[in-house]
Amino acid sequence: MRVFIIDTSNMAPELQGGLIGVEGTSNPTAAEKQECVETASTYALNGWAIAADPHTPIGWLAALTAETACVPFVNLTRIAHDEPRPQPAPARVGG
Length: 95
Known about the structure:
Mean pLDDT: 83
Number of helices: 2
Number of strands: 4
Largest sheet: 4 strands, mixed
Helix content: 25-40%
Strand content: 15-25%
Distance between the termini: 58 Å
């Protein structure tokens, strides 16, 4: 699991306490899950907001921790990089 400290000095007032980003593996161990909850809880108790992708196991735990601690949660849902983006059809010239 990785925790990122995000500068929120120029953001909304509810994020002024601080913001941490939480990221983890797609198949976390029980120890990683416990570390996520403990780390997020520690920051939340100090009034920090939590940011994560709730579609991942670690992000979902971080979101639950934020909700339980009544601190803001910032959804960092990722756009899949392996999905091709739709391309516009080429313009037809002539008739």
